[in-house]
Amino acid sequence: MAFNSDPELRTARNRLEARSAELRERVSRVRLDLQRAHQPLPKELSEAAVAVENDEILEAIEESALGELERIEKAISRIDAGRFAVCEVCGAHIPAARHDAVPYATQCERCAAR
Ligand SMILES: [Zn+2]
Fold it and tell me: Which domain holds residue 54?
């Protein structure tokens, strides 16, 4: 298929995969930190409060990384299906400049702004 040899799509796919690997690493690091944080209970109450706060931050980081990973997976499958540059809402062409700004965009700028 033509889209596999399209250098623009190949670049977009490589970029998405690199970002995906980065996010996966971040998620596993956060999970390790969370595990470690849960092992010894802090003796001081103030320490415990800090630990809980850190957990919440780590969980927020994990959640946002997982959300982005999901969008990246979707974008990669759209590349493989030959629909990467087709807006999922209106079917308009999504210009490469939009994917430069938002690599996992699935909608044209007009639909995304709605
Ligand atoms: Zn659209």
Answer: 2-83
